[in-house]
């Protein structure tokens, strides 16, 4: 057989190759492409081919080599595939255990808060996380350059007359709601908020809030107090008491900070409430007339209250989570503790 016939016959042989076992494929590889393999030796003989035929032979040889390599690969893959399907058809093999995921404690708490306010007739409102100064501050009665803006260290995206920023509270959603709807308004605004704070066990630069707004004729501070009392009793148990301390927010007047009786010691004083018997849970107040005016609502006709709470904080108090950072680390050992709370 001359070299050309050998190439032809090898090509034919390669086409018909088959193998039963991985070892056979390896043997084929060695026989054809190994150091002393048939194709390899053809390359050695190439030297003796007359110069004018070298080009044509070279091309044929390369094609042969590629065909052999491709075929061997194909056989290998077929073998691997057969091996895996053989394993999965073994019905006596134990199955793979898949762990079930759990809902995140922040989601569980958010749903619980929303559920309570839904029963009181509140609708859910949402808005953008990237906001402008007008909706986060100005329409909420924060005068320009007023030190109250420092209460909430802000991440700015761009500056200018109406800077773009990451919202520091979801009160911005309340402004957007007032702009587009007429009283009566009863909404809660759950969402993510951002503050430029150093991360520690008690503070994070990203957290979640639920804020609420109720505007109608003759809404009074007593309505606010009763609504909050109802909420905390649903959330923390029927014996929970509330206490309101005077506070300051630019968008409410009067403003208050609300404490609940410590749900661990029942108000006697323990290390969770630092011996005071009380735990702070939210800010609230009567909507400032300037805020109503800014959004086109007549303060002589309508009044309203607003409140806002951090979901992380509520969840911390409910389950005695001692470090805020745990919410963001996604350590399954932590998350699994909430399996039964769904
Ligand atoms: N927006 C306030 C905050 O982020 C919370 C709040 C809402 C206070 C409504 C009073 C009324 O801290």
What does this entry look like structurally?
This protein is an alpha+beta fold. The chain has helices at residues 3-16, 22-33, 38-45, 54-88, 105-119, 133-136, 171-180, 221-236, 289-294, 311-319, 326-329, 332-335; strands at residues 123-124, 130-132, 156-158, 164-166, 185-194, 206-216, 242-249, 252-261, 278-287, 303-310. The strands form 2 sheets. It has a 7-stranded mixed beta sheet with strand order 1-5-6-10-9-8-7, sandwiched between helices. Strand 7 (242-249) and strand 8 form a beta hairpin. Helix 1 packs parallel to helix 4 (54-88) and helix 2 runs antiparallel to helix 4. The protein binds phenylalanine (PHE). Phenylalanine binds at residues 169, 171, 211, 249, 252, 283-285, 306-308.
Concise summary:
It is built from 12 helices and 10 strands. It is α+β, with helices and mostly antiparallel strands.
Give a quick set of tags describing it.
three-stranded antiparallel beta sheet, alpha+beta, binds phenylalanine
| Category from helices, strands and their pairing | alpha+beta
User: Ranges with pLDDT <50 over ≥5 residues?
Assistant: none
Strand segment tally? 10
Number of helices: 12
Radius of gyration over all CA atoms, rounded: 36 Å
Largest sheet: number of strands, sense, barrel closure: 7 strands, mixed
Instruction: State the helical fraction.
Output: 40-55%
The spatial strand order of the largest sheet comes to 1-5-6-10-9-8-7
Terminal Cα separation, in Å?
79 Å
Approximate strand percentage: 15-25%
What ligands does this structure carry?
Answer: phenylalanine
Q: What best-fitting shape do the alpha-carbon axes yield? A: elongated
The SSE order reads HHHHHEEHEEHEEHEEEHEHHH
Mean pLDDT: 89
């Amino acid at each position: 057989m001359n070299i050309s016939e050998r190439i032809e016959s090898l090509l034919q042989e390669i086409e018909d190759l088959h193998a039963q076992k991985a070892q056979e494929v390896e043997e084929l590889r060695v026989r054809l492409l190994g150091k002393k393999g048939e194709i390899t030796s053809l390359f050695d003989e190439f030297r003796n081919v007359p110069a004018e035929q070298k080009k044509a032979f070279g091309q044929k040889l390369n094609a042969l080599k590629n065909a052999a390599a491709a075929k061997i690969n194909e056989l290998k893959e077929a073998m691997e595939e057969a091996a895996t399907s053989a394993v999965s058809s073994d019905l006596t093999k134990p199955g793979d255990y898949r762990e079930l995921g759990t809902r995140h404690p922040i989601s569980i708490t958010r749903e619980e808060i929303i559920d309570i306010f839904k029963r009181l007739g509140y609708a859910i409102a949402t808005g953008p996380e990237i906001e402008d100064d007008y909706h986060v501050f100005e329409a909420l009665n924060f005068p320009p350059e007023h030190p109250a803006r420092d209460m909430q260290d802000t991440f700015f995206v761009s500056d200018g007359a109406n800077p773009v920023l990451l919202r520091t509270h979801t009160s911005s959603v309340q402004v957007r709601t007032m702009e587009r709807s007429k009283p009566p308004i009863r909404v809660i605004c759950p969402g993510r908020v951002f503050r430029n704070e150093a991360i520690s066990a008690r503070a994070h630069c990203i957290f979640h809030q639920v804020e609420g707004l109720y505007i109608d004729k003759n809404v009074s501070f007593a309505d606010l107090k009763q609504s909050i009392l109802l909420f905390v009793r649903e959330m923390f148990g029927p014996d929970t008491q509330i206490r309101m301390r005077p506070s300051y927010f630019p968008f409410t007047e009067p403003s208050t900070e609300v404490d609940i009786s410590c749900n661990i010691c029942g108000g006697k004083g323990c290390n969770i409430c630092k011996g005071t018997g009380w735990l702070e849970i939210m800010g609230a107040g009567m909507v400032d007339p300037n805020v109503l005016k800014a959004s086109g609502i007549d303060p002589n006709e309508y009044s309203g209250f607003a409140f806002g709470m951090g979901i992380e904080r509520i969840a911390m108090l409910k389950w005695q989570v001692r470090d805020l950072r745990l919410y963001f680390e996604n350590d399954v050992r932590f998350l699994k503790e909430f399996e039964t709370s769904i």
